[in-house]
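Sample intake sheet
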Amino acid sequence: MGGLIGRGILLLPAVLAAAAQDPAPVIVHARTPEGRVALLRLQFKKGLSVEGKALPRAFLAKGADLSGWVAFEALSPAGKRWALAALFPEDQWRREEVRHRIAHPDVESVWTLAALFTGHGQNYDKLMAENPELPEKLREGDTWRIPRSLLSGDLGGTGLRPDRSQPEDDLDDEARVAAYRGLLSFGEDAQGKFAAYRMRKGEALYSSVVIRFTDRVDPKGVNELAERIARRNGIADMRGIQPGQLIKIPTAYLADPFQAEGSSELAEEREIRAEVRRTVRVEAGPRLKGVRIVLDAGHGGVDPGAQANGLWESDFVYDITMRVRRLLEQETEAQVSSTIRYPGLGFKSRESIRTPSRAADILTSPPFAVDGESPSAVSVHLRWVLANDHFAAFRKAKGDAQKTLFLSFHADSLHPSARGSMIYVPGAALVPSTFALGGAKTRRVAEAKRSGRVAFTTREKLQGEARSRQFSEALLKALHKDRIPIHANRPIRNVIHRGRGKWVPAVIRYSTGATKALIEVANLTNEDDAENLRDPEFRERYAVAVVNAIRAYYRR
């Protein structure tokens, strides 16, 4: 989310510099059983691929294409076993385990090993648990064990079966949070008050405790808090935690839904949940007649936003936003506007995104260039100002104020264990009663003069969070129906907690739309999410799911 929730602007050269630091790929020549020579390529964070033209058909999965480089995932079981043996000739394939010797520490990673040997990079925490004596930063010559229980079925292992020990995954947000709360017990010892949680099979301290029960999701915050909680519980090695182990979480770190009975935080959480249940949906029909929508694509111009795995936030979320805009304009009667426009692209989507766009304008009067001449906070504030101005004109023209929707699209850089979409709604407790935008940089912007001041009653704050939660539930259902990954644990959140601060992103904090949400499409630090975002078909599917969610939300 970069500039919208961070502390500054990331300039374009940072993207290029980050890409330049990636280590060179490992290239290996290997002979196939037919005697032909094929090239194998192991790339940093991108995995293994094989030159297709030299491969026998038996080495390809059904439907795989021989042209160009063939991804490891597109190989048959025989092809995968051959490729791994060729790339890692010193590995020992035993009956009960594979012993993998680290040969290329600059290019290999625990995630890569998990992807190649277990079938999915997301299993890296399980792989680390099997090798507690080895550091996560790989060292040449270290030997990693991959037991048969983790080894993928394609490689002769038993394959990891779906873990149904966490049935909360199938619940809606309110029921899921209630189920998580039911797993806690509360107490106090010499070190202070705590909530106690017993670890379940396959769980890790950073994901199943910190990310779930606190409001931390950024890598630094998650890792630091995991270390604090480990020390609080006398845990020397977080990878050695066993199922059933009791973890005491200091109450000071708990998110509002998990605070102790009698706390003001828990009372506010329950008040919001009751407001959600009381709030009646607004009917607009499948054509969304009478609905006013403003779409915002995060960052842009000289600000690329979050960066990881060779991707940057701005262009990719702009592309999804433009696809949502196109679908709404073609298939509905909703009035649709955008807050930002890339001059070189207009409102078009793209199949291929190769380099960061260098220019973007906030569509105020006159347009405000995101060119680095002003602090990033100025362009952030002008987005909600512009959206509020659109909503004010809509209400003045006798439009229904309850049919106003503001959506801001982003892609975050979180802890790599987090995968899938997350949605932020404006937490009522953190929305101010009044706010006025000031500063010389906005004085000549017409919309800032008309709509740069906001005021919210207590009722309006509650309604804003309640309606936004209702929309977010509709979006999660639409994403789930189309098998688009959703953040595990708590995909709907009403606060961002980084460092010592808690806040709501400005674009939704000051929005006067009846419903507003900041959508984190994907976690760029997660390699699977990054691969999805590269795919134009995924971006189109995501846009379709968003439009389906809007239709479902405006249907009682």
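Comment: DSSP finds 15 helices and 25 strands in the chain. Residues 3-20 have pLDDT under 50 and may be disordered.
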